[in-house]
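Sharing a chain and its predicted structure for anyone who wants a worked example. Both blocks are below, sequence first, tokens second.
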Amino acid sequence: MRSRASTCGPSCAIPAAPIRSGCSTRPTPGDSAGRVNPARRILAPNVLGLVACVLLGACGRIIPESLAETPPPPGAQGVTAAVSSLARGPSIASLPLAADDAAQALYAFRESCPVAVSRADASGLTRPEDWREPCAAVGAWPATDAAGFFERYFVPVRVAGGNAFATGYFEPEIRGSRTRRSPTDVPVYAMPPDLVRAWPADTPESQREGRAPLGRYDENGDFVPYWDRAAIEEGALDGVAPVIAYAADPVEFFFLQIQGSGRLVTPEGDVIRIGYAGQNGRGYTGIGALMHERGLIGADTGYATSMQGIMAWLRDHPVQGRAIMRENQSWIFFRELTGDGPLGSIGVPVRGQSSVAVDPAFVPYGAPVWLDLDRTEADGLWVAQDTGGAIRGANRFDTFWGAGDEARAIAGGMSGRGEALIFLPRSAAARLGL
């Protein structure tokens, strides 16, 4: 267990997440089902991690770049770290870098090296050759002196002032099975063969710009939008799409789809790890915002504006809850993962309490990132191995916490502000005059 996690302890429950910011500074107390204690309704500060993804549609979860459907390319507007203000930060030796923190970051950095030495850096801060010296040395470097490795090969740099905002994500773990054991089990579909990109026949040539939409060809040979969530739940893909497994809880699986990857644990204790493979082309709708607008969650409803509160309402109102979940027409297809961790956007496993999602227009993939936040459990050294649709701009981070209940609690409530330093190879820092 990384030392930073121990600072959280049992108090790390997912706080209530209001729809608007500017509230008081204390989380909403609630029972285990997520219902608000009527005697103590206190709004919490805005939380923009997984909870915001559900409430507002501001998903920060990773979607591998090679598979992503819609995220803009890094630096699409020409704004990158290379054209931002840069300043040298304090020495690494002066930072309170814990030994186990450094050792885990060393391991994560080693896994990122094949990408760092071969891939163009969209931030403009580094070149592949800048990474060759530290990557050549990391393989034989002793973990007992991990801090010494970073001191020798890197220079801390503030990008655009270094004012950081960090959220969190995790790998959900829910009940499932290879075979359907209950009529309510939900199929976990792999990519269906009839999901294609094409232009409808009536689309003028002048409008055929960018990527063609996702859809399917119907029985008349016409290109139409792909099945939405309601149609898929009603069996539109029966006998069409391969089934990887079955999820035992429709509500838990709904949230796992939002997160984009996770684990299914069978009654026998086997683990089936699944990761994002594609999407049906339909728009994402954050159901929490709808529920709040309709007065279903929030003050005086008995249900907190948190992930637990939303889940509690959905379970207490199964018919209405199913209809609300179907208002999010997006459906995620999966592939089975056989490695020892979910893959980040650069194709290497992300590690709990070590990997962080970044905007690659501002942080080079593989770069160590130092965070000093008002959420102390996230303080320390991370490695940039991921990105996400909502992770945009300088000093915007999404910290990965692994799997399990503790990871879920910390990630769901993570909303930290403070300072960020990007560790650049010394040759890159010298070229930038730092």
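Comments welcome. Residues 99-116 form the longest helix (18 residues).
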